[in-house]
Specification:
Blueprint lengths: L6 H4 L22 E3 L1 H7 L2 E6 L9 H14 L4 E5 L3 H13 L2 E7 L5 H9 L3 E5 L3 H14 L3 E2 L5 H7 L1 H10 L5 E5 L4 H15 L8 E7 L4 H4 L21 H11 L2 E5 L1 H15 L5 H15 L8 E6 L7 H6 L14 H4 L4
Parallel strand pairs: 2-10, 3-4, 3-6, 4-5, 7-8, 7-10, 8-9
Antiparallel strand pairs: 1-2
Helix pairs in contact: 3-4, 3-7, 4-5, 7-9, 8-9, 9-11, 12-13
Bound molecules: ligand F0G.
GO molecular function, one term: pyridoxal phosphate binding
Function: Catalyzes the gamma-elimination of phosphate from L-phosphohomoserine and the beta-addition of water to produce L-threonine.
Keywords: Amino-acid biosynthesis, Lyase, Pyridoxal phosphate, Threonine biosynthesis
Length: 351
């Protein structure tokens, strides 16, 4: 086969699927690890961005979904269900279509970004908007799948983590080593759990000789892991990580402890500053939740928790086009200038 086959085949020795399973893939993974010169200069480190918006549905969720959907098909499942702040539902909808399954998604009413809703719509998911937050949606999805023949494809399904851990393999494969520090946004805490598992596996097999410190960042209004207790009314501009009671709490905590890492909160203002910096200085357009990894990097650099000269990877988890409303709302120059056809150069102050 020419080109990248998708991560199940690429890492077939490390990602288990049922024997003779039909692999459901959109050739996810193999995303760019882009050097970030401006951030490197600001922090005195070598900073790279793992650009997960380059996955087929525009977020890292595709890594878990290819594995979850492959298992679902092998088990003879006809329908899948998930709770989501938007990206899991977009990915589940796409992969279910690919697999020929029906999908149902439970999303918090009015709190998911427009691009993500559009994806669930075009892929033909049954979309149920719940009066409540992500945590309420997840409880409902768990209950429904426990009582009915429908497979839960949230990251509480352990095979999702198996897919998502491959991002750590890719980082090591490209750098030729593990980074010193890995920064991630944390919502339901599945992804930080998955990366740590990936790094541990590579280290255990001698493919790298060190593991990174895991730095997890939550939005200040949705920071249960920073406060050490669930948050009942999570609130943040970064709707993707608007989660009050992370399902993978214990595993994420273990990752922080084992890696000598940390959890910290970043304000919406810090998130939006990092969001604009990424777009304007690095040329990388991400959704707000993704920028929290970079907001956290800058905060930790400022408060001295980030040793200079470190090799740092920040995962930017989802594409900026997911959330056009935030993109336009945040800008001063929202209104494109209307211009006379003869006056372009004048309008651009070139004359
Ligand atoms: N970044 C983005 C863009 C996300 O969509 C999510 C989670 C995270 C970061 C956090 O990852 O939950 O593994 O800690 N989105 C989930 C969803 C909750 O429903 O799409 P996590």
């Amino acid at each position: 086969q020419a080109g990248w086959p998708g991560l199940i085949e690429a890492y077939s020795d490390r990602v288990a699927v049922p024997e003779n399973a039909r692999v459901v893939t959109l050739q996810e993974g193999n995303t760019p690890l882009v050097p970030a010169p401006h951030l490197s200069e600001l922090t005195g480190c070598r900073v790279h961005l793992k650009v997960e918006g380059a996955n087929p549905t525009g977020s890292f969720k595709d890594r878990g979904m290819t594995v979850a959907m492959t298992h679902a098909v092998a088990e003879g499942t006809r329908a899948v269900i998930c709770a989501s702040t938007g990206n899991t539902s977009a990915s589940a909808a796409a992969y279910a279509s690919r697999a020929g399954l029906t999908s149902a998604v439970l999303v918090p009413q009015g709190k998911i970004a427009m691009g993500k809703l559009a994806q669930a719509v075009v892929h033909g998911a049954k979309i149920l908007q719940v009066q409540g937050n992500f945590d309420d949606c997840l409880e409902l999805a768990r209950k429904t799948s426990a009582e009915h023949p429908v497979a839960l494809v949230n990251s509480v399904n352990p095979v999702r983590i198996e897919g998502q851990k491959t991002a750590a393999f890719e980082v090591c494969d490209v750098l030729g080593r593990a980074p010193d520090v890995h920064c991630l946004p944390v919502g339901n805490a599945g992804n930080i759990t998955a990366y740590w598992k990936g790094y541990e596996e590579y280290a255990a097999d001698g493919l790298v000789d060190s593991k990174p410190r895991m730095f997890g960042f939550q939005a200040a209004g949705a920071a249960p892991m920073v406060h050490g207790e669930p948050v009942s009314g999570p609130e943040t501009v970064a709707t993707a990580i608007r989660v009050g009671s992370p399902a993978s709490w214990q595993a994420a905590l273990a990752a922080r402890e084992a890696s000598d890492g940390l959890f910290a909160a970043v304000s919406d203002e810090q998130i939006l500053d990092a969001y604009r910096l990424l777009a304007r200085r690095e040329g990388v357009f991400v959704e707000p939740a993704s920028a929290s990894s970079v907001a956290g990097l800058l905060a930790k650099s400022a408060d001295g928790r980030l040793p200079e000269n470190s090799e740092v990877v920040c995962t930017v988890t989802g594409h900026g086009l997911k959330d056009p409303d935030t993109a336009l709302a945040g800008m001063v120059e929202v209104e494109p200038l209307s211009v006379d056809p003869h006056a372009v150069a004048t309008a651009l102050e070139l004359t």
